[in-house]
Amino acid sequence: MIAEAGHYALVLALGLALIQSTVPILGARWGDAALMNVARSTALAQLVFTLASFLALITLHVTSDFSVVNVFENSHSMKPLIYKITGVWGNHEGSMLLWVSILALFGGLVAAFGNNLPLSLRAHVLAVQAWVASAFYLFILMTSNPFLRIINPPLEGRDLNPVLQDPGLAVHPPMLYLGYVGFSISFSFAIAALLEGRIDAAWARWVRPWTLLAWIFLTLGIAMGSYWAYYELGWGGWWFWDPVENASLMPWLAGTALLHSAVVMEKRNALKVWTILLSILTFSLSLLGTFLVRSGVLTSVHAFASDPKRGVFILLILCIFIGGSLTLYAWRASALKQGGLFAPISREGALVLNNLFLTTACATVFVGTLYPLALEVTTGQKISVGAPFFNLTFAPLFVPLMLAVPFGPLLAWKRGDLLGAAQRLFAAGVAALVAIAVLWAWTWGGSTLAPLAIGLAVFVVAGALSDLAERTGLFRVPFGTAVRRARGLPRSSWGTVFAHAGVGIALMGIVCETTWNSEYIGSMKTNDVAHVAGYALKFDGLTQRQGPNFQEVAAQFEVSLDGKWLSTMKPSKRSFTTRGSTITEAALLTRGASQLYISLGDIAADGTIAVRIYHKPMVLLIWFGPVLMAFGGMLSLSDRRLRVGAPKPARVPRSLQPAE
Amino acid sequence: MKRILACVFALLVMIGSSAAYAVLPDEIMSDPAKELRARNLSRELRCMVCQNESIDDSAAPLARDLRLLVRERIAAGDSDAQVLDFLVARYGEFVLLKPRLEPRTLLLWLLSPLALAGGGLVLWIQNRRRSRSAAGQDNSTAKLTAEEEARLKKLITEPSLPDRSV
């Protein structure tokens, strides 16, 4: 009954989406406000029905109704409740349902909070949103229905892939999808602008918060996924340049570029046509990511679904939306007027440079990910493009970008003073040089280049702080005044500082982890001691444990530093009976930003274990950086300027307005 | 200048390379220098039965065979290039995670620098064209629609709107 209700709700949502994709457009054509307002009610109703459908699937999983194929294939009555819930999107059908639910959520948000949008713009935006939604409802209903029944219901389910039975699954896919799908809003705004043939700075003001919101989620989603892979897959890697990871990195790179170009458009009314194109490209890359992951065209570490029928359907959606929107762009973009002149050395110029490097980086990831596929399809030849290729081509693009990052916020709009900016970055430069010198002396005879990279990271972080000091007049005016100015700074300026510092911090983590990590690979008997990076790890023996749906063998390690006991670490191996598979659960010990990491290999009959122990210095910075970036994004999002239609003036008129 | 560039390149290769090992204790060579070479080579070679994993990362039996093969060749005195050639002759180009520069991989390797150069060129041309017509006409004033006029009027007549967020 619940399954049928969920199915029916989804069909109704499709019906509503079809109405929403046509009626408001006609309303806008005829200038009929009532018809345009249909978009609002259908978007809200669509949200209700899609959520109902999603909740129905969750209910089926929680109650372990194995008469439903999806539940049978991915659940087990003994599975802990949290994995019964997260297992809903741990499979193809359910994750597509999550995808459309989030799409409906964003549509509903625009409908609910878009009261300040011009009526025709809102009608167009919601209609475009409904086009995307209709396509994906059709996809689910025709090829990936999660509500199918089994005629003779089995008593027990097949259980969820053990790798996915982790709290990471509760956070990573929803975050990632909030990011992916969030970019549909800027896409819809771009298409609406092209359809209407009107675009202005106010448009950028509406688009920016939505883009920012999606970007925050995508940033956190990617970072979260990377950390999950790091502790779950058991070999301590955190980025593999896997096509599935690249699929999420591409929209992130394009989205980051979009975020920056939207600033130029909002502030200076320039780069309009480019911003529109980026909006289209960013969401197209999100669709491409969905295609790559969901079609099974690349069967990779992440892939848990493949069916050619589905692949062709998504490919069709991809072609229609990307092809259609780019054609519309080619046809209508010339009608949009360019405005806002600026000199090459200016804030706008810096942001254009940022866009140049980010889009090139995005193109590099794109070609590296799709070239082997294209070559195989066209010539039948197989080549591999992996981490060594991306490290060589992607990383060089980031050095000039990182060097330029601190300069951007210090340059004035329209015409900047490069020499002046350089002077203001003098302290940051000195900090970077000191860092390089100290590290060089400290690691004498070791890597010569890692200190340079750390210096670059220090420059970015110190540059972000210099910007803050410059704006508040720190060290030039009395401290109290500086604090007062800091409080008066727009939140978006604070956001820039945090986000840029986050980039530098992440780089520090990456360099430290890859250059100075130490490892121990060996076989250990009970009471053997392994020495890694000054830590002594004594193997105390094995213990057995019975989990809810698995059996566990854990090894106990006593960790000490300079003879002083620190902690106990318990890496383990879990065997899942239903699927007959075994996974390793690494043990982590956090010391500051560094971590000790133990992963178990084979366990011999006599109790000898193969073990890998790593010391990963500063490794947590790799994820702390993106968290800072996302925090910067949130600060920027809370800036009152971005809340359109908030013309309430500041309560106390300030005589000292900081320059922006 | 060339040396600096080479340094920067080497630096980046190093930054990017992730440390992930599936090497088993019994595989490790007694000579640390040779072991390091084997490690670095392993990272460039694909485990062909896995999805996008190097033989250094993979726990698959084939990866282990390949790791042992690499170490065998190194022990036999092969240079790094010879080891790679040996493996390519045996398993084809598919085994290399970083494809060689050949006619068929030209686009793969050149797209990135071309995109950067092309993008830079377009920007430069645009900038020149813009500065030539710098005196350009003011085109920032588009006409308001009736709806916008009404809204503007409303905004002017009631100055203190409640704070509504989007």
Q: Summed up, what is this model?
A:
The complex is a heterodimer of chains A (660) and B (166). With 660 residues, chain A is α+β, with helices and mostly antiparallel strands. Chain A has helices at 2-30, 33-62, 69-74, 81-86, 92-113, 119-143, 167-196, 201-232, 243-268, 272-295, 308-332, 347-379, 387-404, 418-424, 426-442, 450-472, 479-488, 491-516, 621-637; strands at 518-524, 529-532, 535-546, 550-561, 564-569, 572-576, 581-585, 587-591, 594-603, 609-616.
Provide the fold topology:
The complex is a heterodimer of chains A (660) and B (166).
Chain A (H helix, E strand, L loop, with lengths): L1 H29 L2 H30 L6 H6 L6 H6 L5 H22 L5 H25 L23 H30 L4 H32 L10 H26 L3 H24 L12 H25 L14 H33 L7 H18 L13 H7 L1 H17 L7 H23 L6 H10 L2 H26 L1 E7 L4 E4 L2 E12 L3 E12 L2 E6 L2 E5 L4 E5 L1 E5 L2 E10 L5 E8 L4 H17 L23
Antiparallel strand pairs in A: 1-10, 2-3, 3-4, 4-5, 4-6, 6-7, 8-9, 9-10
Chain B lengths: L1 H15 L15 H12 L17 H15 L4 H12 L14 H27 L13 H12 L9
Helix pairs in contact in B: 2-3
Walk me through what this model shows.
Chain A has helices at 2-30, 33-62, 69-74, 81-86, 92-113, 119-143, 167-196, 201-232, 243-268, 272-295, 308-332, 347-379, 387-404, 418-424, 426-442, 450-472, 479-488, 491-516, 621-637; strands at 518-524, 529-532, 535-546, 550-561, 564-569, 572-576, 581-585, 587-591, 594-603, 609-616. Chain A is an alpha+beta fold. The longest helix of chain A is centred in the middle third of the chain and has 33 residues, at 347-379. In chain A, the strands form two sheets. In chain A, strands 2, 3, 4, 5, 6 and 7 form a six-stranded antiparallel β-sheet that branches. A four-stranded antiparallel β-sheet of chain A has the order 1-10-9-8. Chain A has 19 helices and ten strands. Chain B is mainly alpha-helical. Helix content of chain B is 56%, strand content 0%. The two termini of chain B are 52 Å apart. Classes of the chains: A alpha+beta (660), B mainly alpha (166). Chains A and B meet through α12, α13, α16, α18 and β1 of A and α1, α5 and α6 of B.
